[in-house]
Amino acid sequence: MQLALYRYSLPFRQPLMFKGQRLTNREGLLVSIHGQWGEIAPLPGFSTETLEEAEAESLACLAALSRGETVSPILPSVQFGFDCAQRSWPSNLPASLPPYPLLQGAPAELIEALGESDWQASPPSRLKLKVARYPMEQELALIEQLATRLPATKLILDANGGWTREEAQRFCERLPLAQIDYLEEPCTAFADTIAVAEATGVAIALDETLSRREEWHCHPQLKALVIKPTLIGSLSACEALVQRARASDLRVVISSSFESDLGLGLLGRLASEWAPDDPPGLDTGHWLTERVTTETGEVMTENVHCLSKMESSA
Ligand SMILES: O=C(O)CCC(=O)C1=CC=C[C@@H](O)[C@@H]1C(=O)O
Ligand SMILES: [Mg+2]
């Protein structure tokens, strides 16, 4: 039985910013355990581990598996990859719902693109927009355009903790609240996020709070948990969050960390299992110009670089 680790580097369609870091390529690892795949791709700016650290731990884990040992990786991205590659996946999962579209870019360019899109003819039920990146007036003008031109579409906003409590409050006071599905992480501290929700009436979702494993509690304006398995790590930790969400009547949105098409496929399967009724946050693949798998799901070994191949005695 074979164990293998591959590395990929896929160009972004245009450079993307991740918490102040400009990336031109998405780099990550693919692990294969007895023919089953997992993806290990720490996201700069969001993951606490580097790709080099993830690679070193992955190689050590594969060596342990080849000796017939069981492994318990520590780094979240490695936990996710090894868990996926060793999981007993349900065989009859339905396809996940199509992801809601993710808008990213300068407000003026997005307003222009909106005029050219066919969304007015067939509006998406939800649409996500990054905020707290450009001047507030420009972002509010874009939201007003979206709300007016797509009245049947609910908007998901994501501030990535980029505002102070006061800034978030000023922004949220001017939102067309009836059209806002929820706002992800307006402030870094959970207490500030809840204070903004209470002062303005905006509905909230948690994302980074979950991957940083910070304390949080339920609140009437907390609507959803955005679960990013690559950042949270083990599938059992993700499942515990899904259970907590179900018990508290919160929606679950399975979201990507800009993985390759292989990782997005795995996340789609988890989304159909854990959140069958909520469109997932997996509309990130179109930012990549290349794939690691064929349309039928085979890994294209010419698009990845083999780091290690081992035989397992088990
Ligand atoms: O959640 C989604 O709809 C797509 C993924 C996404 O928005 C993100 C992925 C990774 C980092 C950020 O850029 C962003 C987020 O914070 O949610
Ligand atoms: Mg987010």
Describe the 3D structure.
Its EC number is 4.2.1.113. One of its GO terms (molecular function) is O-succinylbenzoate synthase activity. This protein has 314 residues and is α/β, with parallel strands linked by helices. It has two domains: 2-91 and 290-311, Enolase-like, N-terminal domain (Enolase-like, domain 1), CATH 3.30.390.10; 102-287, TIM Barrel. Helices cover 34% and strands 23% of the residues. It has helices spanning 51-66, 76-86, 107-116, 136-149, 165-173, 190-200, 208-211, 229-232, 235-247, 261-274, and strands spanning 2-18, 21-33, 36-40, 102-103, 126-130, 154-158, 180-184, 204-206, 222-227, 251-254, 305-311. A seven-stranded parallel sheet has the order 4-5-6-7-8-9-10. A four-stranded antiparallel sheet has the order 3-2-1-11, with helices on both faces. Ligand 164 binds next to loops. Residues 18, 43, 46, 102, 128, 158, 160, 207, 226, 255-258, 281, 284 line the site of ligand 164.
Question: In terms of topology, how is this protein built?
Answer:
Blueprint: E1 2-18, E2 21-33, E3 36-40, H1 51-66, H2 76-86, E4 102-103, H3 107-116, E5 126-130, H4 136-149, E6 154-158, H5 165-173, E7 180-184, H6 190-200, E8 204-206, H7 208-211, E9 222-227, H8 229-232, H9 235-247, E10 251-254, H10 261-274, E11 305-311
Parallel strand pairs: 4-5, 5-6, 6-7, 7-8, 8-9, 9-10
Antiparallel strand pairs: 1-2, 1-11, 2-3
Helix pairs in contact: 3-4, 5-6
The structure holds ligand 164 and magnesium ion (MG).
The ligand O=C(O)CCC(=O)C1=CC=C[C@@H](O)[C@@H]1C(=O)O is lined by residues 18, 43, 46, 102, 128, 158, 160, 207, 226, 255-258, 281, 284.
